[in-house]
Design a protein that fits this description.
Length: 208
């Protein structure tokens, strides 16, 4: 998977390549999908959510430019696979998931794989996680119509964020956000297709 789908397509950040080799993707997919775990495609994980295709995971991780001191906020834990990739490189990973069942399942897998530097919270990702802010890096794994204000506030100066932006599941762009003391810079870097980032009103309806 790594050689054919990651390296051959231009991902040359060795830290990311090593992380993709280290994390067993089959642990994060449903049992009936294990035979497809190392194909370059998103796979359903339940609750209308997916585990992203390996190339997109690697691309987003590489774009963040992580190091061993990085403190990363992830919006959208999902299966926990992206969090594990981040944890192979970064110092700490803080991940938020709105769907309780997915969060609990991800916690179990993360614990089984003995990751000590990942914290998972059930909540509204659009609000971020102020308790541990600021973050040197933020990664959003669901598409938003805009960049949530709370995430911009919780991103540290000289920090980087990657987030899919788009009003439709067919027209999304992965956007790189760089925050400096002089302001915010945005750059479209890759056409993508993600499930939507859930709004607070929809969260409330799900819990009733």
């Amino acid at each position: 998977m790594v050689e054919e789908q990651i390296v051959s397509r231009g991902i040359n950040d060795q830290k990311v390549v090593d992380a993709m080799r280290a994390v067993p993707r089959h642990n994060f997919v449903n049992k009936n999908m294990v035979h497809l775990a190392y194909t370059d495609q998103p796979l359903p994980i339940g609750r209308n959510q997916t585990i992203s295709q390996p190339y997109v995971v690697a691309y987003m991780t590489s774009t963040l430019e992580l190091n061993e001191k990085s403190r990363v906020l992830e919006i959208g834990t999902g299966s926990g696979y992206q969090a594990a990739i981040l944890a192979e490189i970064a110092k700490d990973v803080y991940s938020i998931e709105v769907i309780e069942g997915l969060a609990e399942k991800a916690r179990k897998v993360i614990k089984q794989l003995n990751y000590k530097n990942i914290k998972i919270k059930i909540g509204n990702g659009r609000k971020g996680w102020r308790e541990y802010a600021p973050y040197s890096h933020i990664i959003v794994t669901a598409a938003s119509e805009d960049i949530p204000k709370a995430l911009l506030e919780q991103l540290d100066i000289d920090g980087r964020m990657v987030i899919p932006i788009g009003h439709s599941s067919w027209t999304q762009n992965l956007v790189l956000v760089a925050k400096t003391k002089d302001g915010i810079r945005r750059e479209k870097i890759l056409p993508v297709r993600f499930v939507p980032l859930i709004h607070e009103k929809k969260i409330s309806r799900r819990r009733k």
